[in-house]
Structures are given as structure tokens and as C-alpha cells.
Design a protein that fits this description.
The structure is a homodimer of 345-residue chains.
Chain A lengths: L1 H7 L10 H14 L9 E8 L14 H12 L3 H9 L1 E9 L10 E3 L17 H20 L4 E7 L3 H13 L15 H18 L6 H8 L2 H15 L4 E3 L2 H13 L7 E3 L6 H10 L15 H19 L3 H4 L18
Parallel strand pairs in A: 1-2, 1-4, 2-3, 4-5, 5-6
Helix pairs in contact in A: 1-2, 2-12, 4-12, 5-8, 5-9, 6-7, 6-8, 6-10, 9-10, 10-11
Chain lengths: 345, 345
């Protein structure tokens, strides 16, 4: 970071004039351990799973959409495909717990641990072993990508009902009231929102998750894809690969990951500020300032894919710009009032 | 715009979930007149010129830096080169009024109208004819690029002293106090900032620009590159090419352009929110919400080049995403409370 900072100050621009891109480049140097890091090999890891709590009428879309959207992503037609193509990133899709049997497809990583979670409003969504297994699968997917040269990873999710699980996790860990951390997800109406809050309240009442036990919280009111993203984040951080955290679901996974391992926080880059109210609370808690604010509420890793452009830009500026010496440009004059004789004075 | 909106609502995502990117894509359709616009041919137009007001000690850098930085941009070592390369845009550099004689270079558009402006603290910076000539040159540069297939244009500037001229223009047009619209530019210290405000106050006192005469304001307290950017903006808008407005200098040109022709406003996309206080006031005045907020204060078109990624993303999403029908994905269920029988009730 010190080397990157020194180089930053020799580049042909007023010191600090590239604002947050300068800080970002210096952080990227710290994460990777390289003074001039670059990120040619990028992946968005999209983990898919279903949620038993949809029985409570918490989502605007039917559960079948999770499997349908996995198909859409595999076919290249989803928002994340478009944005990842634009950012030069590959999309890695894994089934960690979709309720439907998905067709055999070589492009899909088949790691189904269960057919959706159990309904957390009636009991624990996952067992502790299931949650741990999902974390392990997430970490393994990153390992596989590292073998393919990965140097920048983004988190993505697909799962009808997963904003309900995420709100429950955030409420449990941060001891916030469910109504405060619950948004409209894919767009439930007022009655749906009330059902969603009620389901979270029941889930917390029945399961009594302990805020000091993040794994327990993840199992009791979480989901397969959220736990998998915890694994993606921890493995990425451990490998010194910058982890771009997408929106609310990914942010919830980041919250759990940093509860498990506080040092992981420094390897995270917050992509954007989602419309979901709980996401802003997570970002404040993690003291991460998002790069973008585009009122997104889609998930899939869409915000993270767009943030890749800014990460590439920050790294390219640090790496490619000419220094004052190389370009023969005069540095800042340390002027004093006395040096200037105003023609009017 | 109506066609783009209809398509937007058929794409495989919850309606509105791509937030500002959806609105942006619809605006791009309106600007270009195409339901699915794309932008393969992009240019950042960087206009360079000097400012006589630097005699007053208003800048942290010596005037020679303008010419040196033009050389740096031509050699490909400046921030704008790095960012334009990343965005797939060409950099078009023109000398409209640099105080030094620049070496012959086929890559430089030589359109010098004068050797820097006159010191606006002592009299008019430009004559009305010089300002008009600069506008004409800016428009001609866009015409030339249109002949090369241009379909997305960004504004950029290079000129030591040009935040002083921009603050004077904004103060004159919007009747704001100079101290309110004056920032630190490339980074003057407190004494430098006071000299800068004093120079603007003297310029307004001596030249008495009329806020109802934007051309007069542009001549009296403006600059060659700022006037040139007015031409770039007006010609871009007239050709139905989206114009990405960079930071404070470009924003000042946009303010003048929309005073001359209010309809031009709808063709402008605000790239980012600069650190310069006057820039935020311009954006409010123009009712433009910037895409990025990265605390930049560099100019050159750097923020605009980065905004190109978001514009490409918005257009690609509208163009490339699958529709619900194409992907076989279920649409939103219009659920009612009655449809859901909670297993707990």
C-alpha cells in the first residue's frame, strides 16, 4: 500500500484529484500484495437456492422462478450475463439448494445440498451441518476458479425468498427490529411486506438465534446460497483476491463472514448501495462505502459486475499513467502570496 | 422512449429492479431515436486553452502545465488516456487557446484562436467574436467525429486557471456570490483561494456580465476551451448524440449551452459529482443527477470516460437481456393475502 501511495503521488495529476479511485487502487495493492495490481481474470459467482419461507407468501414471484432464472443465466439471457460480458468476467453458476431438479448442464456446478431450506417460520431453515457444507462448497468453487487464474471475484445470488432470509439474519446479528431491516424484495405489495415481517418475527421467536453465534444464525434463519457466499467471501479473502460484494443478499453473507473472521472485511469492496433498507445498515456496520448508487434491487451480482469497471479503472490509472518525470510535466508550485505581484496592486 | 419502456418491462427481472439504469436506457432511446441504442463509436473531446487570470495567483500549478499536459495526453500518459482506453473511446485533443506554441503533431487538432485569454480581472477575457469562434470550432470538431461514425461523445478540458473562469461564469449566470461557487481547483491553499475569489469579484465588477446574455458572460469571464465545449454540447445535441458532461468546467459549458438553447438539456448525461462546490450547484440548476460520485476533481473528461461504462451497461441490458417469454420465466404473480394459507394460521 505504501508503494502504491508513493506511485500515486508521482502520477501526472494533482495529488488526490482522482478521489476515491486513488484510495481504491491503494486498497487493491494492499489486498493483492502488488504495487501495481491488474485483474485480467474475473468471475461472478452466482449461487442459487430456494427458501421454505416462501410458503408464508413473502415474495412477489413464485418459487419456480429460481430454477427458471438459473436456466436463463445458463443460456446467457439474464442481466448478470449482459453485465459480466461487458466487464470481461465469466459467470459461474452453482445450484446449492434449488427446490426443483435442474436439467443436466455442463455449465452448471451441481452442488445441491437440499431441495430448498425448511420454512424458518416453523423451525430452523438448515441444520448446522448443512450450513457448514454450503460454506465449504462456496469456498471450493473459489478454489476451482483460482486454479483457472482468478484474480477478482464478485458475489451473486438467485433465490426467491432470499431477501426474507437476509433480513432475518441481519435482524438477528445486529439486534434490529425485523420491520426496520425488511424491504420490498422483488416488489411485494404492502400486505406482502407485512406477511414478510411477520414471518421473520416468527422465525426469530421460534429459533431464538444467538447474535454471538453467526453460524447458528446462518443455519436457523439463513439459506444455502447465503451460506455459500460466506464461503466465497472467506476463501477469496484468504487467497488475497479482492471480493466485490454485490447487494443485500451478498452483503448479508459479508456480515456473517466478518462476524466469523473480522480480518476478512479489509478484502471486501462494496459494489453499490441497494434499494433494500437492510443493505444500507450492513454497509454502515461494515464501514464500507459503496462505489455505485444506482437504485438497484436485482441481485445476481449485477451491481458487482458494474463495479468491476471502476476497479479496473483504478488499477489501470495506477499502472498506466505517466509520472511527472516521465512526461516532463511541472509539479505543483508551492507558491506564497509574496510570489504573486498582482498587476492590480 | 415508449418502445424502450415497453421492452424494459418484458425483460427477465422484476420491473424497475435495475433502477437508474432502466431510466438511463429509456433516455438514451429518446436521445438517439432508437428503441435499442448501442454506442460502439465513442470519443472524449478534450479542449485545451490558457487563462490570463493566472497572473492573479489563482492556481496551484504554473501556466506551462497546460501545454505540458497536452503533450502528455498526445503521448497517451494522462489519466484521460487510460480511462478512455478502458472505455473503448478515442481521445480527440484540440488546442483552442494554449498560451504556448505547441509542436506540430498530426494527432493534435490545431485551432488556436489566441494565446490564452486576457486577464478577466482587468477587462474582458475574450471578445464576443473570439467566443463565437471557439463555439464554432467545438461544433466543427463534433461534425468531424460524426463523419467518423460517432455515436457517444464526452466533454473534457485542460487549462490551468479554468476553474476560476468557470466559477466566474456560474456566479454571473446564476447570480451567486463568487465565494459560494469557488473551490480549490487543482488544490490552491487558503491564501490562493482568497486570491481566486478576489479575482472573480474584480472580474464581475469590471466586466459587469449580464446574466440574460450567456454569450456575453462567456466572452467576458470565460475561456476558449469552455466556449469550445459549448459548441461540442450544442452540436452533439443537434445530432441526437448523447453528450456526457464531465465535471465543473464541462458543467459550466453545459450551463451556458442550455441558457442559449434550453432543449439541449435533454441530451446531456451528467457523469459524476465533482468535489468543486460550483459543480453541484450547476447539476441542481440543470436538474441532472450524476451517475457517479467518486470525489474526482481532475477534469480532462475523466469522470465522463468512466460514465461510458454505465451507459454501455444500460444500453446492453435493454438490447441483450432475454424477455420473460423468450426465457420461459414466470412473471410476477399478482398475489392477494387470500391466496396464501399460512401453515401457521
Amino acid at each position: 500500500m505504501e508503494g502504491a501511495r508513493q506511485r500515486q503521488d508521482q502520477l501526472t495529476k494533482p495529488r488526490g484529484s482522482l478521489g476515491r479511485l486513488e484510495e481504491l487502487a491503494i486498497r487493491l495493492a494492499g489486498i493483492t500484495g502488488h504495487v501495481r495490481p491488474r485483474f485480467p481474470s474475473k468471475a461472478v459467482i452466482v449461487l442459487a437456492a430456494d427458501h421454505g419461507v416462501v410458503e408464508e407468501g413473502v415474495s412477489a414471484y413464485p418459487q419456480a422462478v429460481t430454477a427458471q432464472m438459473v436456466g436463463n443465466i445458463l443460456a446467457g439471457g439474464a442481466a448478470i450475463n449482459v453485465l459480466a460480458r461487458g466487464a470481461g468476467a465469466r459467470v459461474v453458476v452453482a445450484d446449492l439448494g434449488v427446490a426443483a431438479l435442474l436439467p443436466d448442464d455442463a455449465r452448471l456446478i451441481q452442488k445441491k445440498i437440499g431441495h430448498g431450506t425448511r420454512n424458518m417460520a416453523r423451525g430452523p431453515a438448515l441444520s448446522a451441518n448443512e450450513a457448514l457444507e454450503a460454506i465449504r462448497v462456496g469456498a471450493e468453487i473459489v478454489e476451482g476458479e483460482v486454479d483457472r487464474g482468478l484474480d477478482l471475484v464478485a458475489t451473486g445470488d438467485m433465490g426467491i425468498g432470499n431477501t426474507t432470509a437476509s433480513s432475518a439474519i441481519v435482524a438477528a446479528i445486529a439486534s434490529w427490529a425485523p420491520a426496520e431491516v425488511t424491504g420490498r424484495g422483488t416488489g411485494v405489495d404492502e400486505a406482502g411486506w407485512r406477511r414478510k415481517v411477520a414471518a421473520i418475527e416468527r422465525a426469530l421467536e421460534i429459533n431464538r438465534p444467538d447474535p454471538r453465534d453467526p453460524l447458528g444464525v446462518l443455519a436457523k434463519v439463513g439459506g444455502y446460497e447465503i451460506a455459500g457466499l460466506v464461503g466465497v467471501i472467506l476463501e477469496g479473502a484468504a487467497r488475497r483476491i479482492p471480493v466485490i460484494v454485490d447487494g443485500f443478499i451478498s452483503g448479508t453473507a459479508a456480515l456473517v463472514a466478518t462476524e466469523l473472521c473480522p480480518a476478512a472485511r479489509d478484502y471486501l469492496i462494496a459494489a453499490h448501495s441497494s434499494v433494500e433498507v437492510g443493505h444500507r445498515m450492513i454497509l454502515e456496520q461494515l464501514e464500507l462505502v459503496p462505489l455505485l448508487n444506482l437504485d438497484l434491487r436485482l441481485g445476481e451480482g449485477t451491481g458487482a459486475a458494474m463495479a468491476m469497471h471502476l476497479i479496473d479503472a483504478a488499477a489501470a490509472l495506477l499502472d498506466e499513467m505517466a509520472t511527472f518525470a516521465e512526461a516532463g510535466v511541472s509539479q505543483r508550485a508551492e507558491t506564497t502570496v509574496a510570489e504573486f505581484k498582482s498587476p492590480l496592486s
